[in-house]
Structure prediction request, 302 residues.
Amino acid sequence: MAIELFRIDDRLIHGQVVVGWGQPMDLGFVVLVDDEVAGSDWEQELYRMGVPPTMDVYFHSVTDAAGALPRYQADPRPGVLLTGDIETMCQLVDGARAAGTPITVVNLGGIHHRAGRTQHLRYIFLAPAESAELRALAARGVAISAQDVPAARPMPLEDVLAARGDA
Amino acid sequence: MSEGAARALVAGHGDFAAGMVSAVEQITGRGDVFLAVSNRALGADDIERVLREQLDATGATMIFTDLPAGSCTIAARRLLRTRRELVLLTGTSLASLLDFVFHVDLPVTDAARHAAEKARSAVLVLGGGGQISGD
Prediction:
């Protein structure tokens, strides 16, 4: 089954991931790629306690995540990989390609309000530099769409970037 | 039971908190015990900031959240790290909030434990030709 969803979500592990995606996917594991969390036992315990005992959580810094991808892609259980921001996902995509395990599809799950960002969807706010990063990622052959929960319609990147407001 | 500022925050997804507080108000007239917080459109840092600001504004030392894995719970658990007086109950139900209303003058840890016990005992499965059972 391997990693079925590569998701950018600034809340990292939360209800939409564990329940919204986790239940219909019969999610077996979550790979959380975040330098701060990877360097903190306390942060890891915080996120680990939020998931059911049947679900494993693995933590990686962005530099060591790409090398671990083949192991996760060979896992018979369905999995989700999370990054908390666009930059981390871009670094991971590049590292994964270099490691021979390309990431071809990326989900925008939640990038919320922050100073300098413009609202595109109810759950997607982007600064101009972030929009450019996503366009550059798409130009490298990655299919990007926004979809917060499985029941929602995926919205392609160009439609997301063209959208304004809380649609 | 004293009246005044909210004694606890209720935080969760969408309109969960507002709906719960509305139900408490309808049943007891004491919706003022709680302040509702939604995580809608907020990132993790903003959820934590809103909870911190509302705790400071009200003096509340209790947070009820909906899901153990939810972003409000994660944020509240971060606050527990620096606020030793703070108590968190997750998996909140209407039964737990109603119980808290009627024990709000107890020490907050005791009121929270009482509410959790009440909530557990309030879960029943009925019908289907089987036995009546609790959770």
Observations:
- The CA atoms of residues 77 and 88 of chain B lie 8 Å apart.
- DSSP finds five helices and six strands in chain B.
